[in-house]
Design goal:
By secondary structure, the protein is mostly helical. The chain is 69% helix and 0% strand. It has helices spanning 23-27, 29-32, 34-65, 69-96, 109-134, 144-175, 178-185, 198-217, 221-224, 227-249, 261-284, 295-299. It is globular and about 60 Å long. The termini are far apart. The relative contact order is 0.11.
Amino acid sequence: AQVETAPQVQEHPIAHGVQPPDELTLAKRSWLNPGFFIARVLFYFVVWSLLGQWYWRQSWKQDITGDVGATVRMQTLSAPSLILLGLTLTFGAFDLIMSLDPHWYSTIFGVYLFAGSVVNALAALILVLMLMQRWGYLQLSVNNEHFHDLGKWLFAFVFFWGYIAFSQYLLLWYASIPEETDWLVRRGASTAHGATNVWSGVTIALLVGNLLIPFAGLLSRHVKRQRTALAFWAVWLLVFHWIDLYWLIVPELDGKAYFGLLDVATFVGIGGIFLAAFVRLLARHSLRPRKDPRLVESVAFENI
């Protein structure tokens, strides 16, 4: 009688150092060659920078001229700008993260990264506004109603991130294609062949800490209107968003979990440059959009 054996898990191409590209990787060389790859990444950052600069300048000019047409122009271009942002963010996610494993692919991966990025942006915005108010800025322009609204958006995108993460996992599990399931196995999502490792704990931590706990924590209306509680959940989600990015990237390098000097330098270097540019732009103009036609309506806003 034949003894049935479980299929062997496909070994990661770079698990033991740099390996020659296989047939599947070579089939993608026209897209992943260094020159075209760098050109695409530069294009993404140029598009993101131009969109941000244009909207910022329109708001700034409106403060000077009081031109209501600036609001109309920004509204008119918002839909195509969102389409362009969605496409570039999706391709950027494919190029910068998904291509670390040229065997793996997921058509929902761009949406997954987008959902996590929105959670990160909302949490950061909440903390920045709270710090600015503590330093005496925007005392009248931003109140509990606005923080309540930001809390609702944060709660909504925590749930949306969980929905997209589960959808991606369900499709990969149901299809059971080796090139796809191996990506999850390397992250400890299977106990086959001793696959359980430190990444199993990280995977469970993301499920619990990035979805279940903050979902329950942000559910109450009271939490969204209480500054200390809302700040706690904003910090919590920023930490778990970093863990999520770590979980996406590091297993593709050598499969080991670590946090070293390079990770600290990344925070200090890139984070410091971003923070310096952010503060410099804030200091150049009024924080309050003084001549925005919706300013009065925004200040008088009340949640239901």
